[in-house]
Amino acid sequence: MPVKRLLDLLLPPECPACGRQDTPLCAACRGELERRLTEPPGVPIGLPARQPAGIAQLEWCAAYGGPARACLHALKYDGELRLVAPLGGVMARRWRQAAVGGEVLVPVPVHTERRRQRGFDQAELLASEVGSRLGLPIVPALQRTARTLAQHKLGRGARAGNMGGAFVARRDLRARLAGRWPVLVDDVVTTGATLEACATALHDAGAVAVSALTLARER
Question: Is residue 104 part of a domain?
């Protein structure tokens, strides 16, 4: 019996947003995450927000609340990896619908200590799922050089300073960025400070443009 099927029998999945049994993400909650699929690129949710510096295009699927928040919390803090496929699928569909440019996917890395604690990097898993659906290569080109405070624990004014200099491009992968258009992949964007820091590192490595894709965006 496949491991996934055995896991589902022993620990049946449950939609983290509504509690429906036997599915990691029910159709109704998935629909909430897909509400932007038919909207044109760059349409904001709620109050208008500025474009992060250095980012040519930022796309996301849902506001950071309701099903999006519940799913990301379950993925990151409860280790519900069965959410990777449906969440990555929603992200891939949004990018296929709205993308302008983009040649490779670059996950926004967590610090190595945080990855060790969780046993995985959620952005890396989501990027892998998106890449497999879109036929785009994954280039783990960024390295986190400092363990920063979680952005959600800080006020908006402190978030930009929290990320300053936190990322560099890996020397062994810089050649795969030069002259190309990478797309950063992360779970959620708040002020955009993380994406700005990552974009700076990618531009320094020779990227001609940088875009970004996340599941959710904070209002």
Answer: yes
Determine how many CB atoms are found less than 10 A away from the CB of residue 197: 24
Number of domains in the chain: 1
What would the DSSP string read from start to end of 91-125? HHHHHHHH-----EEEE-PPPHHHHHHHSS-HHHH
Per-residue pLDDT tens over the stretch 34-91 = 999 988 887 665 556 678 999 999 999 999 999 999 999 999 999 999 999 999 999 9
Helix or strand or coil: residue 209?
coil
5 part of a folded domain: no
* pTM score: 0.88
Q: Which domain holds residue 199?
A: 14-39+54-217
pLDDT on residue 1 = 45
Cα gap 145→166, rounded to integer Å? 5
DSSP 8-class letter at 18: T
Per 3-state DSSP, the chain is made up of helix, strand and coil in percentages (nearest 5) of 45, 15, 40
Bridge partners, residue 212, by sequence: 58, 184
Instruction: Return the number of other C-beta atoms located less than 10 Å from residue 170's C-beta.
Output: 16
- Name residues whose C-beta falls within 8 Å of residue 190's C-beta, 6 or more positions apart in sequence: 64, 151, 152, 156, 159, 217, 218
> Which of 122, 123, 118 shows the shortest CA–CA distance to 106?
123
Residue type at position 14: E
Q: How far apart are CA 123 and CA 143, in angstroms?
A: 13
Q: Please indicate, yes or no, if residue 157 is contained in any of the structural domains.
A: yes
